[in-house]
Specification:
Length: 227
């Protein structure tokens, strides 16, 4: 059994999630690396690949059951996310079917994993950590036009963060939203400012918080971000 704890990472097939999963494994965590296609994690050292589609309840429940076999999740990184197809343009013209798909992944997917692991996280008590990977594009104080499905989904994820943090406060579990910045992944594109490692650092910060660290906040690079 790992000394650091057991962490579930969604969207670990590539990008920020993969970096977070491999870094935590190297740090001595037991990492359940969730991927829609776990074959993408074949040969990745130190992680336990698990099939995870956050929009599929059975898949989410199976990951929670697998985490129990390892003694229960002490941390959850809700990283899986999508921008959506053809929903980067004006919010007034977006196809609501696709908006719904973005919400299913970015909001309800994170919500479902959190619910499935609540009992385990409560049992972890003050060791418990939840990091919801959000985005500055969900900042109400910096609202712009376009990419409405993504922006609105991240605002919802932020409110999920605050409400869940309040509900888990008495257990000592720390729940925060973090923005990785603009990162060179399939989502961010090659012109993005940050390397994957630089973006993942903001997420890892939330997992590595000391027991008396903040909860219910929104951060980038360990610094508070305005909502
Ligand atoms: N890149 C940026 O500039 C940036 C900026 C701010 C916030 N973020 C946030 O950072 C997180 C990671 O993004 P990224 O840049 O690493 O993107 P990415 O390279 O496109 O990776 C997205 C990950 O999410 C997974 N995923 C998508 N739908 C899923 C589902 N239904 N179930 C499980 N996994 C699913 C993908 O799995 P598959 O391989 O199976 O598709 C992939 O592992 C996202 O929440 C994103 O919103 C990114």
């Amino acid at each position: 059994m790992s000394t650091r704890g057991v962490v579930v990472v969604s969207g670990a097939s590539r990008g920020i999630g993969r970096e977070v999963a491999t870094t935590l494994a190297a740090d001595g965590w037991t990492v359940l690396a969730g991927a829609r296609d776990p074959a993408t994690l074949e040969g990745v050292d130190g992680v336990e690949p698990v099939q995870l589609d956050v929009t599929d309840g059975a898949s989410v429940r199976a990951v929670a059951a697998r985490a129990s076999e390892f003694g229960g999740a002490t941390a959850l990184v809700n990283n899986a996310g999508i921008i959506g197809e053809n929903v980067r343009g004006p919010v007034l013209e977006q196809d609501l079917q696709e908006v719904r798909r973005v919400f299913e992944t970015n909001v309800l997917g994170a919500w479902a994993l959190l619910q499935a692991l609540t009992r385990q996280l409560r049992a972890a008590g003050p060791r418990g950590r939840v990091v919801n990977v959000s985005s500055g594009m969900g900042q109400l104080s910096d609202a712009q036009s376009g990419a409405g499905a993504y922006r609105v989904s991240k605002v919802a994820l932020n409110m999920l963060t605050v409400t869940a943090a309040n509900e888990l406060r008495a257990d000592g579990v720390l729940v925060n939203a973090t923005c990785p910045g603009w990162v060179q992944t399939d989502m961010g594109g090659p012109q993005a400012q940050r390397t994957v490692a630089e973006g993942a650092a903001s997420v890892l910060w939330g997992v590595r918080l000391p027991d008396d660290g903040p909860t219910g906040g929104f951060f980038r690079d360990g610094e508070p971000l305005p909502w």
